[in-house]
Write a structure and sequence with these properties.
The structure holds 2 protein chains of 2 kinds. By secondary structure, chain A is mainly alpha-helical. Helices cover 69% and strands 0% of the residues of chain A. Chain A has helices at residues 6-30, 34-60, 79-83, 94-111, 116-131. Chain B is of the alpha/beta class. Chain B has helices spanning 42-60, 64-80, 82-93, 97-114, 117-120, 156-167, 182-193, 208-216, 229-241, 264-276, 296-308, 328-343, 380-383, 399-408, 422-431, 467-473, and strands spanning 4-5, 8-10, 13-15, 22-26, 33-38, 124-130, 133-141, 144-148, 171-175, 201-203, 220-226, 245-249, 254-258, 286-292, 347-350, 370-373, 390-396, 411-412, 414-418, 436-439, 455-456, 459-461, 475-483. Classes of the chains: A mainly alpha, B alpha/beta. Chain A binds chain B through residues 3-8, 11, 58-69, 71, 114, and chain B through 79, 82, 96-99, 101-106, 269-270, 272-273, 277, 284, 306, 309-311, 318-321, 441, 443-445.
């Protein structure tokens, strides 16, 4: 399955962010180390900021005159994030998930290079996730 | 809103039209009826003019800083309701959601520019034009203006005009497209919620009866029109005869020239959006592809390959890359052009007729990406505006030949060149007689602070829409010469 428009890429990114927030919120229920709690809370908060950033991008940078079709952006390799089981999720897997999302944003940045503002925001989001 | 007869918004209230006839507003992707446009009457138009006239004096004496606060609130409300507004635009027009989002961004930008009126409307002065005598110029609003809007950008085009008009102190009447009116109804619902002063901005639905009344009534001062050159020229003459200010943006046939030194990897996707964006229904859409010299074969192959991959479908699906034509009539018109191209000897290398669609779209007005090769400049498809997803490819030998063909066109809305040569680009912008020039940009759409230019049969009038030209259109320059004894 491919993502063929900027709107489709943003919609998918929103799904990924929401899915990860759900995982972290679930992890928060079971976390029993104080340090972990702070880390997870911070990740949830960052995820919410990312969603706001994506929605702002969708409203403000969908530049009509240079909207170009997107080629060969396959989403299959990111589906596992959406399929992660909430009940069995172990917070130790967060690094792996964050890396995967960072990869998604890196690819998104490259695929929407025709709108430089959008590409830059995806690069920033990739950085955010790789820093996590 | 299914089947509901839309109301006019006059003097701060939703009112029924006196119309006895209505027109179906149809979702062009599914064929579903969304609403009914009342084909308004002379009395409807007169009612709106009276409301705007009565509101004028109070509004023009309201300080500009206070006037624009309504626009700030409107801007914020559009941001808050952005998704819903974009969806309505897609539902009634057919364009993709991304295209509707892009259109609303431009709409909001036009409102934002109008909030600069306290600077943009400033006049100037000069001391001692003779000893002890000073002179100044002030820019004053004129009264009741109106626009006659097209279907292709039902949100954005009215916003080229009305925010500047009311920010400068005029009052306004929007006559939306009778084919795609719901977009403006949604905007007026927000205007109503924000409780703009009554009468300063009005909405009246209809067709020729309404437009003729708006022009002929002595209480209106000016008209902005965007649509076909045929209707535009008619309105231009009619409005001129009764001394109205007019700006008419008519049809287009935008030539896109690709030079042998163009970066084809970057050029092809941009050509795709130029020719097929909004299903080819932009007044800035690519109309003819001029392939210069040796770029012809690779350009043809690559654009054919890219066009075949476009995903045609329902604009409400995020994955859709191209939606339907905005109406059956529009689709039939494009089909006639395709037949004409075949009849006149062009080679149809990609046939978008009868595209394969999902079952829920079989009543839609779809034509897929279409390409004609071996087109000559004399053919109808190279001369007339198709307003659909069709690329006629014309092979030319040189830039000079390309410019000669472009300048023979009766239209002069826009034209673009794709090249890596600064010299070619400069020659192009210098010599091509079109109002909006793109250099490695296939849709040369000026932002709201620039005039939306146009020449020849694509524009009639003296002052363009948007930017400072728009401010000048909506104001009169008054000169005051002062001497104190």
């Amino acid at each position: 399955m491919t993502l063929g428009t900027l709107g489709a890429v943003i919609k998918y990114a929103l799904k990924l962010e929401a899915a990860v927030i759900s995982l972290y919120e679930k992890a928060l229920e079971t976390a029993n180390v104080k340090e972990d709690n702070a880390t997870i809370t911070s990740k949830v908060s960052q995820g919410q900021k990312n969603i706001k950033k994506l929605k702002k991008l969708q409203r403000e940078n969908t530049t009509e005159m240079i909207l170009e079709p997107i080629k060969d952006f396959h989403k299959d390799s990111f589906e596992e994030i959406l399929q992660t089981d909430l009940e069995t999720f172990n917070f130790e897997r967060s690094g792996e998930i964050e890396n995967k999302i960072a990869l998604f944003y890196e690819e998104a940045a490259s695929k929407v290079s025709f709108i430089q503002e959008a590409s830059y925001i995806f690069q920033q989001l990739a950085l955010k996730h790789s820093e996590e | 809103m299914k089947g509901e007869i839309l109301k006019n918004y006059i003097n701060g209230k939703w009112v029924d039209s006196r119309a006895t006839k209505t027109r179906d507003v149809i979702n062009p992707a599914t064929g579903e009826i969304l609403a009914q446009t009342p084909m308004g009457t002379k009395e409807d138009a007169e009612e709106s003019i009276q409301a705007a006239k009565e509101a004028f004096w109070r509004w023009r004496t309201t300080p500009a800083q206070s006037r624009i606060r309504y626009l700030y609130e409107l801007r914020d409300a559009f941001e808050e309701n952005f998704d819903e507004l974009a969806e309505v635009c897609t539902l009634e027009h057919g364009k993709t959601l991304d295209e509707s989002r892009g259109e609303y961004r431009r709409t909001i930008e036009s409102i934002e520019i109008a909030t600069s009126i306290p600077s943009l409307q400033m006049g100037f002065n000069f001391e001692d034009v003779a000893m002890g005598i000073d002179e100044m110029m002030i820019k004053q609003p004129l009264g009741v203006f109106f626009c006659v809007a097209p279907f292709n950008f039902p949100a954005m085009v009215p916003a080229w005009f009305w925010p500047l008009a009311i920010a400068t102190g005029n009052t306004y009447i929007v006559k939306p497209s009778d084919q795609c009116p719901i977009t403006m109804v949604k905007q007026f619902e927000i205007i109503d919620e924000l409780d703009f002063p009554k009468g300063i901005i009005n909405l009246v639905h209809g067709g020729p009866d309404v437009v003729n009344t708006l022009i002929e009534n002595p209480d209106t001062v000016g008209l902005s029109f965007v649509g076909s050159s045929k209707i535009g020229n008619l309105l231009y003459r009619k409005a001129g005869e009764v001394g109205k200010r007019v700006q008419v943006q008519g049809g287009a046939k935008n030539f896109i020239t690709v030079m042998p030194d163009a970066d084809l990897e970057r050029t092809i996707p941009n050509l795709i959006t130029s020719f097929y964006g909004n299903a080819g229904q932009r007044c800035l859409a690519g109309g003819v592809l001029l392939a210069v010299g040796e770029v012809y074969e690779p350009l043809k192959d690559k654009i054919l390959d890219a066009a075949k991959k476009i995903k045609l479908g329902y604009g409400m699906d995020e994955d859709t890359q191209m939606g339907p034509l905005a109406s059956k009539a529009g689709m039939d018109n494009v089909l006639k052009f395709i037949d004409k191209g075949i009849e006149e000897g062009a080679e149809l290398i990609l046939d978008g007729r009868n595209p394969k669609l999902d079952d829920n779209l079989i009543n839609g007005s779809f034509i897929g990406p279409t390409i004609f090769d071996k087109v000559t400049p004399e053919m109808t498809i190279a001369k007339e505006e198709i307003f659909g997803p069709v690329i006629p490819i014309v092979k030319v030998n040189s830039l000079e030949e390309a410019i000669e063909i472009i300048n023979k066109s009766r239209y002069g809305n826009a034209s673009s060149i794709f090249t890596s040569s600064g010299k070619s680009a400069r020659d192009y912008q210098y010599n091509v007689n079109a109002g909006n020039i793109g250099i490695n940009i296939g849709v040369a759409a000026p932002i709201a602070s620039f005039p939306f230019s146009g020449m020849k049969d694509s524009f009639k009038g003296d002052l363009h829409g948007q930017g400072k030209s728009g401010v000048d259109f909506f104001t009169e320059d008054k000169v005051v010469i002062t001497r104190w004894f």
